[in-house]
Amino acid sequence: MAKIMVQNTEIRLTAVNQEDYLCLTDMIKAKDGDFFVTDWLRNRNTLEYIGIWEKVYNPHFNYGEFATIKSQAGLNSFKISVGDFVAQTKAISIMAKAGRYGGTYAHKDIAFEFAMWISPEFKIYMVKEFQRLKAVEQEKLGWSAKRELSKINYHIHTDAIKQNLVPPELTKDMINKIYASEADVLNMALFGMTAQDWRLANPEAKGNMRDYATINQLICLSNMENLNSVFINENMPQSERLLKLNKIAIQQMYVLQNIESKKILKD
C-alpha cells in the first residue's frame, strides 16, 4: 500500500477501479482539536460537493436518498456514518474499509476537499506530495516498460544466434557458452565489461548488470540487440560487430544524454 507523508502525517493510499483513494482517517490526525470524519460529512457544503461529484461520475447514485440526507444537513441532531451514507446512496466517492488497512477512504477529488477542511496549508502540501508520488510511479512505469522492451528484443537476439551461430551438433553446454558470449558482446559494447566482470565487482548485488541499468542504457541496449541480430544475419564476424556496436553505443548514449540535459534546462 502506497503512502505519502504530509506535515508529519502519514497518509495511506489505495486503488479502487484504477482510481486513487486516500485515507481520511489518517488525514484527520493533522486537524487541531477532537474531530471525526463524520463531523465533516454532516456539513452541507461537503454534501453538496459530494452530490455533484457523484452526479458526474456515478450513474447508480441514489439521488432520492441523497436528497433526504442533504435536507437534514445543518440540524444539530443530524449525523451520519460513512457506512450508512454509502449504503443509502450507493456513493462511490467515499468508502469505509475494514481489515488490516481499514479506515475511511475517499477518491482523491474528495480527499483534496477534505484536506482543505483540515487547513488550506495542509491541502497545498498534500497535493504537492501526491503529485510527487505520481511522478515517481510514472518514472518507474517508464523504466519497467523499457526493461520489458529489452527482454523482447533479447528473444529476437537469441533467435538470430540460434539460427546463425549454433551448429546443431553442439552440446547444450557449448550452446550456452555461445549465448553467454554473444550477450557479452552487447555488455562490452555498452557497459565496457562482461557479466562475470560485473558480478565480481558487485558481489552483494542481486540480479544482473542490466537490472541496474538506466533508462537511457536500456533504450540503447534495445537498439543494439536489434542491430546485432541484423549483423549476425549478415555473417559479420564477432570482433567486427563488437567494434561497430561500441561506436553505436557511444553515439546513441551521447544523443540520449544530450536530449535529457536539454529537457532539464527547459524545465
Keywords:
5-stranded antiparallel beta sheet; 10% strand; alpha+beta
Can you describe this structure?
With 267 residues, this protein is α+β, with helices and mostly antiparallel strands. The chain folds into two domains: 3-118, no CATH class; 136-266, no CATH class. It contains eleven helices and five strands; from the N terminus they run E-E-E-H-H-H-H-H-E-E-H-H-H-H-H-H. Strand 2 and strand 3 form a beta hairpin. Helix 3 (44-57) packs antiparallel against helix 6 (108-118) and helix 10 (215-233) packs antiparallel against helix 11 (238-266). The longest helix is centred in the middle third of the chain and has 45 residues, at 120-164. The radius of gyration is 28 Å and the shape is elongated.
**Which percent range fits the helix content?**
55-70%
What is the SS-derived class? alpha+beta
Task: Give the distance, in angstroms, between the N- and C-terminal Cα atoms.
Answer: 31 Å
Residue runs with pLDDT of under 50 for 5 or more positions: none
Beta-strand content bin: 5-15%
Order of helices and strands: EEEHHHHHEEHHHHHH
Beta-strand segment tally: 5
Let me know the largest β-sheet: 5 strands, antiparallel
Q: What multimeric state do the chains show?
A: single chain
